[in-house]
Specification:
This protein is an alpha/beta fold. Helices cover 38% and strands 25% of the residues. A nine-stranded mixed β-sheet has the order 9-10-8-7-6-5-4-1-11, sandwiched between helices. A three-stranded antiparallel β-sheet has the order 12-13-14. A three-stranded antiparallel β-sheet has the order 15-17-16. The chain is globular and about 50 Å long. The protein binds iron/sulfur cluster.
Length: 352
């Protein structure tokens, strides 16, 4: 049976130094054995080829960790292996996460020559004091230079930011939005700072902004940023949304490659949950998969497509009686602006 297209996520688990807020799967190691790591990634690619055949690949995303630490020849070999084992669509989106302070223009150009066509930059803040508080390895100037480089190369550029730090005021967020507008990037992700367990920040006594201030900041972003929101934390000029994430949020299959990567595989009408480095591969029920799709889809402004599997696990009566937070548009259901502020509560009630 012909297998359907799968997106590919590759996890690069190394960083120069751990940031103080980070709970991602990564370790501080600026000079890992890249050749050995790259070979393992390529052997995973081959083993997926053996299971799935020559599938179509619409998007590839190198996340981390700090993928920009990777030598460009290792990146090129991985892209070559994907090309050899699968069919990369001619207009495939190939993203690489990049940290200021780990890349210069030559290296960025080499990533792009090898196939990357979207650079996602971890800026986090334009304020050096805040960058220090977060434990980032770069300055605001480094971040600006990295954005500049990517824009000069002419690929699609995205930048990540964190807001809601101790002492953050609405004016700070508005200023950040105006700076983003001035730079002219077409995609950005703005995440609220969450204090994760066992991180250095969790051991500090922090005076965090209260919920009302956080909600005001969230509203201020939508008002002052020149790009519409398309997911709870993501904003893009029309047509510049991250296709990889959109596909996954919409429920498309994806392969997670490398330790720390998660995937959802679809083989012969059965869904499997999977972790990279062959650490997990097991079937999941259609209803569990539908719940996952509802949870990710409702976070997007276009919402979840109400197919039969989604209808079976969704409390549509709850949705109909809460039009202040949920709306139906054609065959989809999505959260309103006020719904976006309380998504976790909504999801809990929406799943039957
Ligand atoms: S660079 Fe990213 S993955 Fe690495 S420690 Fe910092 S936040 Fe975590």
């Amino acid at each position: 049976m012909a297998q359907i297209a799968h997106n590919i996520y590759i996890h690069v688990p190394f960083c120069v130094k751990r940031c103080k807020y980070c709970a991602f799967f990564s370790r501080a190691c600026a000079n890992p054995d890249w050749d050995t790591w790259g070979e393992r990634i390529i052997s995973e690619i081959k083993s997926w080829h053996a299971r799935l055949g020559n599938i179509v690949v619409p998007t590839i995303f190198f996340g981390g960790g700090t993928p920009s630490l990777m030598p460009t020849d290792v990146f090129a070999k991985i892209i070559g292996a994907i090309n050899k084992n699968f069919y990369i669509e001619s207009n495939a989106e190939i993203s690489i996460e990049t940290n200021p302070g780990t890349i210069d223009k030559i290296k960025m150009t080499q990533f792009c020559d090898a196939g990357a066509n979207r650079i996602s930059i971890g800026v986090q803040s334009f304020d050096d004091k805040k960058l220090q508080f977060l434990g980032r390895i770069h300055s605001a100037n480094d971040a600006m230079r990295t954005i500049d480089m990517a824009m000069q190369i002419g690929v699609r550029v995205s930048a990540d930011f964190i807001y809601g730090l101790p002492g953050d005021k609405i004016q700070d967020i508005i200023h950040m939005c105006k700076t983003i507008n001035k730079i002219g990037i077409t995609h950005c992700s703005l995440y609220e700072l969450t204090i994760e367990e066992n991180t250095p920040l969790s051991k500090m006594k922090l005076d965090m902004p209260d919920n009302n201030t956080m909600a005001e900041m969230y509203m201020a972003i939508q008002k002052h940023l020149n790009m519409p929101r398309y997911e709870v934390s993501n904003y893009a000029v029309d047509g510049h949304e991250c296709q990889h994430n959109m596909n996954i949020w919409d429920g498309a299959p994806y392969i997670g490659i490398g330790r720390g990567a998660a995937g959802r595989i679809f083989i012969n009408n059965t869904w499997y949950e999977q972790m990279g480095d062959e650490t997990l591969f097991q079937p999941i029920s259609d209803s569990d998969r539908a719940i996952e799709r509802l949870i990710t889809g409702i976070r997007t402004t276009r919402g979840v497509f109400l197919d039969n599997a989604i209808k079976q696990i969704t409390d549509l009566e709850f949705a109909k009686s809460h039009s202040d937070v949920l709306m139906f548009s054609g065959e989809r259901i999505h959260a309103t602006d006020s719904g976006m502020l309380i998504l976790d509560d909504i999801i809990e009630k929406l799943v039957k």
